[in-house]
Amino acid sequence: MMNSPKSLVGDLRIEKGARRKKRRSRIPLIVFVLVLLLAGGGAFVWWRTKMWAPEVRTVIATAANTGPKTVLNASGYVVARHVAVCGSKVTGKVMDLLVEEGMRVKAGDVLARLDDSDNLASLNLAKAQLVAARLATEQTKVQSALADRTLVRETLLIKTKVETDLGFDQAKASADGLRAQLNYQEAQVTAAQRQVDVNQAAEEDMTIRAPFSGVVTTRDAQPGEMISPLATPGGFNRTGLCTIVDEDSLEIEVEVNEDHLSKVTPGQWVIVTLDAYPDRPIQGRVFEIIPTADRNKGTVKVRIKFRNRDEHILNQMEVRVAFLERNPNAPRRPGILVPRTALRDKDGAQFVWVVKHGHAQRRTITVADYVDDQVLVSAGLSGGEAVVVDKQVNLSEGKRIHQAKP
């Protein structure tokens, strides 16, 4: 029996409860998709913020009164007062060279050894001759002692008229002769000992030692080369093995123009800046003004001692020296202090980056002086600004940035 059209439509109808159940099963999926989209959007915003707004370290510019001021600027070089080119007292072939550039050595350390085969043979010969001389002396001592005892007996006999004068004279001559021979042989022993000492010294000269503690700056020879205290006309030999510099003797030499010499006095404080490390100022003091002038350049040499030893100071480095005023009661100068690491330089203009409302702002400044590891700014800053000290971050005017938390 066939169903009527009305019944067929009824069969296709979806119950209301089933429709509501199907809609409820889709809600968690929709919520999950929305959460996923929100998380992805947040991650994108965070990534965009980090990529386009880098995080930088900042320091607050502070107002301060500083002193004393710089009265003279000069340039010079780091020099060592204690430096030696180590060579040899004798001519010889280098067998071993035990140093390299940059190696630190102590006084007495072995730097090199020369070929000592000839000296060693001569030393052994001298030692053998010394042994032979000593043995001959011992033999003569025995004979001399016997002759002395014989002379004593002959003396007693001659007094009792038992022995003739001839026997006494022979005994006395033998004793005197052996005594003289013993003295001669003892002198030979002394001479042989001196010869051993000479050969021993020559053997020690084959070993080159460090004259003082320091660092090796150059290595000037190689094993197999000939070294000599004097250079030959043909230049076939070396005159030096290496150069040693005593780092504790490093100081600064600057040449001051005669017109400004009145601004420099012994004991005056200075601020030294190494060209290689401009952000590491070092204190120093005028040690000596050399009492002579260079008539060709019109300058006077000034020696400066470092206040504290710094591992960054190397021999022959170029430096800039700021001589400070000598009056300790001089009026202090107002200004703004910022770290040297904040200072930028481009096309001869000095400036710093300031964070304002989350953006980078370039401020051209006027540097009045350098005070230890800070810069005294006389114009361009008013104090209280957040100054960027990260030089590795490339900034541009108006770029969005974030300040790192202290």
How does this model look, in words?
Strands 4-13-16-15-14-17 form a 6-stranded antiparallel beta barrel. Strands 2, 19, 20, 21 and 24 form a 5-stranded antiparallel sheet that branches. The protein has a 4-stranded antiparallel sheet with strand order 3-18-23-22, with no helix packed on it. The model has no long low-confidence stretch (mean pLDDT 80). It has helices at residues 5-12, 16-52, 117-159, 165-204, and strands spanning 55-56, 58-60, 62-66, 70-80, 83-86, 92-97, 104-105, 110-114, 207-209, 214-219, 226-227, 242-245, 250-257, 269-274, 277-294, 299-306, 318-324, 333-339, 344-346, 349-356, 359-364, 366-371, 374-379, 386-388, 402-403. It folds into 4 domains: 55-66 and 332-403, conserved putative lor/sdh protein from methanococcus maripaludis s2 fold (Beta Barrel), CATH 2.40.420.20; 70-80 and 247-324, Efflux pump adaptor protein, beta barrel domain (Elongation Factor Tu (Ef-tu), domain 3, Beta Barrel); 88-114 and 206-245, OB fold (Dihydrolipoamide Acetyltransferase, E2P), CATH 2.40.50.100; 117-203. Helix content is 32%, strand content 35%. The protein is elongated. It has 406 residues and is of the alpha+beta class. The protein contains 4 helices and 25 strands.
Q: What is this structure, in a nutshell?
A:
The protein is of the alpha+beta class and 406 residues long. It is 32% helix and 35% strand.
